[in-house]
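lol forgot to send this yesterday, sorry. struct tokens for the thing we talked abt
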């Protein structure tokens, strides 16, 4: 019996920011075949190939401003049962996912719902630069996961709202807040250079606060 080897790859387009899932089959990648995966906007997202038992992908990283070449042992790609993360080797920023198609779809749907909750009616195309906005959000999630997103009152309960050109963070406990510009790749580099983010009481520019 031939067991078909399949995998799926979910990547955000570095041009328009859309996250889409692509199905891969080992027969697409036989011999020296390279596979180019395109976004529905027409942008070439990634090159996929196999070499010496590894699966090699080259996603574009917005934080580093370049393509990363990432090798994954093939046994961790084909017919796996869990969703795995592709990350930037320098910043650990999430660049995409691979794993079973149905679970990837589930993950994308979850992110989509989360995004809707954070945007209060704003659509994907309302962002000044969707890929910058979504990358900034990923970076904020990393800060939060590390415990490096706090308010100066000591709270870690931070409300996130995405506006078209910035992310507004508001403390759920006090009037602390912080606005993060997120409209250009420069904003990503700046955000990524911080060790931690501190919401400040009264001295911030958040529109949710009336100021000093
Ligand atoms: Zn695209
Ligand atoms: Zn990178
Ligand atoms: Zn606070």
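and heres what i got for the seq, position by position
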């Amino acid at each position: 019996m031939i067991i078909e080897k399949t995998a799926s790859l979910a990547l955000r387009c570095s041009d328009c920011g859309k996250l889409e899932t692509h199905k891969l089959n080992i027969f697409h990648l036989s011999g020296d075949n390279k596979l180019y995966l395109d976004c529905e906007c027409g942008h070439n997202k990634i090159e996929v190939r196999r070499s010496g038992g590894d699966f090699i992908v080259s996603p574009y990283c917005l934080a580093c401003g370049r393509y990363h070449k990432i090798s994954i042992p093939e046994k961790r790609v084909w017919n796996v049962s869990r969703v795995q993360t592709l990350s930037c080797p320098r910043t650990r920023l999430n660049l995409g996912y691979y794993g079973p198609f149905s679970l990837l779809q589930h993950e994308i749907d979850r992110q989509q719902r989360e995004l809707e909750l954070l945007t209060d009616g704003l659509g994907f195309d309302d962002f000044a630069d969707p890929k910058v906005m979504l990358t900034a959000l990923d970076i904020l999630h990393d800060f939060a996961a590390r415990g490096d997103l706090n308010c100066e009152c000591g709270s870690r309960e931070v409300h996130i709202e995405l506006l078209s050109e910035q992310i507004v963070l508001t403390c759920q406990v006090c009037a602390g807040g912080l606005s993060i510009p997120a409209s250009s790749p420069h904003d990503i580099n700046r955000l990524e250079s911080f060790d931690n983010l501190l919401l400040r009481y009264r001295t911030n520019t958040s529109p949710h606060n009336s100021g000093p």
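The first helix runs from residue 101 to 119. anyway ping me if u want another try
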